[in-house]
Amino acid sequence: MAQTVQGKGPSHIGIRLSNAAPASHQEEARSQAEEALFGFWVFLMSDLIIFSMLFVTYATMGHSLAGGPGPHELFDLSSAAWETVALLASSFTCGLATLAMRYDRSVKKTLFWFAITLLLGLAFLSLELHDFMTMAAKGGGPSRSGWLSASWALIGTHGLHVTSGCLWMLIMFAQTARFGLDPLVQTRFMRLALFWHFLDIVWIGIFSIVYLLGVLS
Amino acid sequence: MSDHHEAERRQELHGYVIGLILAVVLSALPFGGVMLGLLPKTSLLWLIAIAALCQVIVHFRFFLHIDLSRSHRDDLQLILFSLLIVALMVGGTLWVLSNQRHMMG
């Protein structure tokens, strides 16, 4: 298949209409996609502020154990390491999915990589759920101390974000089945990919500050 | 598929692979350091902080494609402005609450 219309230089969007579409339509779709992605960046940055405040609340609660169990008793570093592996691998496969969508334009390949991403996301969530249940069983529920409330709020908010990312992926599968990879579906997939990569960045903060520093101190 | 197209694709794939390798190394270092306990505590603190900061930059550069090129200038400005707000809020909270702890404790 010959690509007659190409963007000017590499673009981080790379949404392509069918080859038959005139150049002006391509440009229009591109600028609309740019706008949508920029808007999504604004949302991500407001989400970043929420996470920052949860992180700083956690930091100020560092000593408020109220006689309850602390990070040494409650955290399992190997579980956190596997969660990191799952999320990082899913970020990579998410990248491969966007490449399959933008360059190969193959519905099959795109859905395959997004499905792997979803499975890794679910693996992360089940590990995290297991962590939460272990913590609660050891007497480290969210109401036990200020430190535990802050930990549950921070890790739980991230977990809810990952859950909504998984739901979003399922919705996108349905949309792809219904509409194919049309430009609108493509920009939605691009926003989902941004969201997913962003959650991995928040996780870097969680495993460094909550798990590693917690076990260290 | 044209050659130009194919080259662009390969270049992007290359970026994701480099990002993945760097991220794995930058995660393995602090986890390994803490789990094996080979270093003194202060060095581990620095290792965790520096590895995390580097990994955040790696993710932005290789996965989110934010760099200094002109087409990404708007995104970068938005991110830097948000970081300013975050720094003010985080710094202010730490300052006020540590003062409060000090005076009440």
UniProtKB/TrEMBL annotation, chain A:
<keyword id="KW-0812">Transmembrane</keyword>
<comment type="similarity">
    <text>Belongs to the cytochrome c oxidase subunit 3 family.</text>
</comment>
<feature type="transmembrane region" description="Helical">
    <location>
        <begin position="192"/>
        <end position="214"/>
    </location>
</feature>
<keyword id="KW-1133">Transmembrane helix</keyword>
<feature type="transmembrane region" description="Helical">
    <location>
        <begin position="150"/>
        <end position="171"/>
    </location>
</feature>
<dbReference type="InterPro" id="IPR024791">
    <property type="entry name" value="Cyt_c/ubiquinol_Oxase_su3"/>
</dbReference>
<dbReference type="InterPro" id="IPR035973">
    <property type="entry name" value="Cyt_c_oxidase_su3-like_sf"/>
</dbReference>
<dbReference type="InterPro" id="IPR000298">
    <property type="entry name" value="Cyt_c_oxidase-like_su3"/>
</dbReference>
<dbReference type="Pfam" id="PF00510">
    <property type="entry name" value="COX3"/>
</dbReference>
<keyword id="KW-1003">Cell membrane</keyword>
<feature type="transmembrane region" description="Helical">
    <location>
        <begin position="36"/>
        <end position="60"/>
    </location>
</feature>
<feature type="domain" description="Heme-copper oxidase subunit III family profile">
    <location>
        <begin position="38"/>
        <end position="215"/>
    </location>
</feature>
<protein>
    <submittedName>
        <fullName>Cytochrome o ubiquinol oxidase subunit III</fullName>
    </submittedName>
</protein>
<feature type="transmembrane region" description="Helical">
    <location>
        <begin position="111"/>
        <end position="130"/>
    </location>
</feature>
<feature type="transmembrane region" description="Helical">
    <location>
        <begin position="80"/>
        <end position="99"/>
    </location>
</feature>
<dbReference type="InterPro" id="IPR013833">
    <property type="entry name" value="Cyt_c_oxidase_su3_a-hlx"/>
</dbReference>
<keyword id="KW-0472">Membrane</keyword>
From TrEMBL, chain B:
<feature type="transmembrane region" description="Helical">
    <location>
        <begin position="44"/>
        <end position="64"/>
    </location>
</feature>
<protein>
    <recommendedName>
        <fullName>Cytochrome bo(3) ubiquinol oxidase subunit 4</fullName>
    </recommendedName>
</protein>
<keyword id="KW-1133">Transmembrane helix</keyword>
<feature type="transmembrane region" description="Helical">
    <location>
        <begin position="16"/>
        <end position="38"/>
    </location>
</feature>
<keyword id="KW-0560">Oxidoreductase</keyword>
<keyword id="KW-1003">Cell membrane</keyword>
<keyword id="KW-0472">Membrane</keyword>
<dbReference type="InterPro" id="IPR005171">
    <property type="entry name" value="Cyt_c_oxidase_su4_prok"/>
</dbReference>
<dbReference type="InterPro" id="IPR014210">
    <property type="entry name" value="Cyt_o_ubiqinol_oxidase_su4"/>
</dbReference>
<keyword id="KW-0812">Transmembrane</keyword>
<comment type="subunit">
    <text>Heterooctamer of two A chains, two B chains, two C chains and two D chains.</text>
</comment>
<comment type="similarity">
    <text>Belongs to the cytochrome c oxidase bacterial subunit 4 family.</text>
</comment>
<dbReference type="Pfam" id="PF03626">
    <property type="entry name" value="COX4_pro"/>
</dbReference>
<feature type="transmembrane region" description="Helical">
    <location>
        <begin position="76"/>
        <end position="97"/>
    </location>
</feature>
<keyword id="KW-0813">Transport</keyword>
<dbReference type="InterPro" id="IPR050968">
    <property type="entry name" value="Cytochrome_c_oxidase_bac_sub4"/>
</dbReference>
<keyword id="KW-0249">Electron transport</keyword>
<comment type="function">
    <text>Cytochrome bo(3) ubiquinol terminal oxidase is the component of the aerobic respiratory chain of E.coli that predominates when cells are grown at high aeration. Has proton pump activity across the membrane in addition to electron transfer, pumping 2 protons/electron.</text>
</comment>
